[in-house]
Amino acid sequence: MLEKVKQRIAWVDEHMAGSVAQDLGMEALAYDERTGVVTLRCRTAQWMRNGHGVVHGGLCTTIADQSIGTVVACCKPQEGTCPTIDLHMEFHRPLLPDKNVLVQVQILSATRSLIRGTARLYHEDAPEKLCVSASATFFYVPSEK
Fold first, then answer.
1. Contact call for residues 27 and 7 (beta carbons, < 8 A)
2. For 135, phi and psi rounded to 5 degrees?
3. 19, 21, 27, 34: which has the fewest C-beta neighbours closer than 10 Å?
4. pLDDT in tens, 103-131
């Protein structure tokens, strides 16, 4: 799974230059076969701040959605798209700009057309403190050939 996720990130970097996905600087770090958790790392930046000086909630949502979606893309049975159809966010602590963020993604279930997953976001220098958690459902649409 880790190699698939790395390949997906490389594909995004090659084919989607300048996209939000690429701007997050996402890296795949680890895969725990026992729990099914994929650990990703991305970086926040000053431009992501809101008026309170912390990462804007919409950008926290973007990080979570992109992270889960990256792993979901590696779980599809064949070529196709997987748009997000449901996303639930919980904010526990603020994400800070100019920090590395660890994202732990876990796929909960995959049926013929729906893939559900979760993400947990932490600052890399404080992995014991959960900042954001998310759950999402993606709708798998196979490519027409």
1. no
2. -135, 145
3. 34
4. 999 999 999 899 999 999 999 999 999 99
- Quote the CA–CA distance of 141 and 143 in Å, as a whole number: 7
Cα dist. 45→5, 11, 12, 32, 106 in Å?
A: 23, 23, 20, 28, 25
Burial 4-20 (b: 16+ CB within 10 A, else e): bbeebbeebeeeeeeee
Q: What is the pLDDT of residue 145?
A: 67
Q: Cβ(65)–Cβ(121) under 8 Å?
A: no
Nearest to 130 by CA among 99, 89, 91, 87: 91
Domain ranges of the chain: 2-142
**Cα-based distances in Å from 79 to 22, 69, 138, 140:** 21, 14, 14, 10
Range in 21-30, 42-51, 70-79 with the lowest mean pLDDT: 70-79
Q: Which CATH architecture has domain 2-142?
A: Roll (3.10)
